[in-house]
Amino acid sequence: MTDPIADYLTRLRNAIRAGHRVVDVPSSNIKKEITKVLFDKGYILNYKFVDEEHRSYIKVALKYDLHTKANAIHTLQRVSRPGLRKYVGYKEMPRVLNGLGIAILSTSRGVMSDKEARDLKIGGEVLCYVY
Q: Which residue of 19, 36, 37, 100 sits 20 to 30 Å from the alpha carbon of 112, by its own alpha carbon?
């Protein structure tokens, strides 16, 4: 697998389209951090890190609206990829849907949303857009 973050986003996207409540994703440190950001910003209902003998994975509970059955995540878009990395400074930080969505960045201080990075005045690699 050349791009594990794209695989993570695709698994979430496919589970949303199929209407699943829970999805299992192979675990890595960056995927754990992205999951924490999604939970903190309210895009997923809950998560659990499971470590078994032979494999570790993340169990993600997706968030749906009770009345309309719509998911909290409308779009997951990978920005920086192994063939073309996208780095931004805090002054050129992208605003996703005029602030209604978030961009997840990998910075020198860890993985965080664009708003947190802008407040700390640090830039980094734009991993994905979520709205």
A: 19
Local structure of 18: helix, strand or coil: helix
Put simply, whether the predicted model's pTM sits higher than 0.85 gets the answer yes
Query: Of the candidates 54, 127, 59, 66, which has an alpha carbon nearest to the alpha carbon of residue 94?
Result: 127
SS3 of 126, please?
strand
Chain centroid, CA 55 distance in Å: 21
| Burial category of 104 from C-beta neighbours within 10 Å (exposed 0-12, middle 13-18, buried 19 and up) | buried
E strand or H helix that includes residue 78: strand 76-78
Alpha-carbon gap, residue 80 to 51, rounded angstroms: 28
Distance CA 109, CA 30 (A): 13
pLDDT tens figures, 37-67: 999 999 999 999 999 989 999 999 999 998 9
